[in-house]
Design goal:
eight-stranded parallel β-sheet, two-stranded antiparallel ribbon, alpha/beta, single chain, uronate isomerase, domain 2, chain A, TIM Barrel
Length: 423
């Protein structure tokens, strides 16, 4: 049998498997796109357009069709990228537009088609649940915002705590006080505020998430060690790096204690340095690796053996060491292909290594990182194609058989996430 025959058979199975989306930025009250800009100017695409030579500052000054016309000459240079490939699949399957690029000959048709389905919440929900086959989708929740209403049969939440750990500041302490009603003057007050915040979200989340910078290293801190620094941050609004590290470590400890007590997963998103001057806005981020950070994190994994850590990375240099860590620590999992890793070659590398090194229940194979429902579809097709490709290669090599391949595909796309996050 030819490889193409194996791939087509496996992909025909994989494309119908339901998925759990463990990381996205959807608004459950507004799943649809508001205009064509939400589709064509997804930030992955805009970064590529800018990289090709488009002046980002001039681009950002414009709106609507004027913005598109300014960007139009640069679309020819991104026809080769994985992100544009995903966009093409969306336009073809969701809008009936089979295009090779977006240019002066077809932009009106593209805009007209996308605009005709803008603000259609019924359609967006059907795209998400039926076309994409999403069983459960993980909303990224801001700790300082009110929890939006969402359908718990489809959505759950992940509490993102970057502003309380990585970017801990006087302003974030003030925000914490405001949302909890706790004035923070001591370590005990800080404990109470974090516990109050967690309780506010407890019934709406399955995980807490943090994206630490590569330079961040954590220590185990006693309440007495942070009293002075807490007062100093509130009064001066600034701490020296050592003091900031102690205070951030303490807050992280409190969240890990709560995850341990309430059986919530802890998502770690690593491998990104930001802000980096001159890098693409709004994140100004590049990938970066600090191997000392991995050694430091293993201490957390060891001290909290009953907390399940799901580690997501943006830098492919982390794929092997993180897979080794997941092999050694039963409470550590590795998932997805974050941001600068969401490209075919890198996805396949991640998948091959994880499948060959780990028990197949130790990794989740999908998240969309999407902001509107249509982009979830683009990412679903991208991920499923790569999963099918890697599994087909393994069948073709005689490494696994067809039945095991389909078993692994189901595990990667939804079963592992359901078990890990207790859905």
């Amino acid at each position: 049998m030819k490889f193409d025959d194996v791939f087509n058979e496996i992909y025909n199975e994989v494309k119908n498997i339901l998925v759990v989306d463990i990381h996205e930025h959807l608004n459950p009250e507004k799943l649809s796109h508001a205009s064509f800009e939400d589709i064509l100017f997804y930030h992955y695409i805009v970064t590529e357009l800018s990289s090709s030579g488009m002046d980002r500052s001039e681009f950002e000054k414009r709106r609507g069709v004027d913005k598109l016309l300014y960007a139009l000459p640069y679309f020819k240079y991104v026809r080769n990228t994985a992100t544009f490939w995903s966009l093409r699949q969306m336009l073809k399957d969701l809008y009936g537009l089979d295009i090779k690029t977006i240019d002066e000959n077809n932009w009106r048709d593209v805009v007209s088609a996308i605009e005709s389905r803008a603000n259609d919440e019924k359609r967006a929900f059907e795209i998400l649940t039926k076309t994409c086959g999403v069983k459960k989708s993980f909303l990224t929740l801001n700790p300082f915002a009110n929890v939006k209403e969402f359908r718990k049969d489809v959505f759950t939440g992940v509490l993102r705590i970057d502003n309380l750990v990585t970017y801990l500041s006087k302003d974030s302490l003030t925000s914490l006080e405001n949302v909890t009603g706790v004035e923070i003057r001591s370590a005990e007050d800080l404990d109470k505020a974090v516990e109050t915040l967690f309780k506010k979200f407890e019934n709406d989340i399955v995980a807490v998430a943090l994206s630490p910078l590569p330079s961040e290293l954590y220590s185990f801190v006693e309440p007495s060690e942070i009293q002075l620094y807490l007062r100093e941050l509130k009064s001066r609004g600034y701490l020296e790096p050592y003091a900031k590290s102690l205070l951030s470590s303490y807050v992280l400890q409190k969240f890990l204690d709560l995850c341990n007590e309430h059986k919530k997963v802890f998502q770690l998103m690593i491998g990104v340095e930001r802000p980096v001057p001159g890098a693409a806005p709004p994140d100004y981020a590049i990938t970066h690796v600090n191997y000392d950070q991995l050694i430091n994190l293993t201490k957390l994994f060891a001290v909290y053996p009953n907390v399940k850590f799901d580690v997501i990375s943006a830098d492919m240099r982390l794929v092997h060491p993180l897979t080794v860590i997941a092999k050694n620590y039963r409470n550590v999992y590795v998932s997805g292909y974050w941001w600068y890793s969401m490209y075919q070659a890198i996805i396949r590398e991640y998948l091959r290594l994880r499948i060959q090194m780990l028990p197949y229940n130790k990794t989740c194979g999908f998240f969309s990182d999407a902001y509107v429902a249509d982009w979830v579809y683009g990412k679903v097709v991208l991920a499923k194609k790569q999963i099918a490709y890697v599994l087909s290669e393994m069948i073709y090599e005689g490494y696994i058989d067809r039945d095991l391949a389909i078993e692994i595909a189901n595990a990667l796309l939804h079963e592992n996430a359901e078990k890990l996050y207790n859905l």
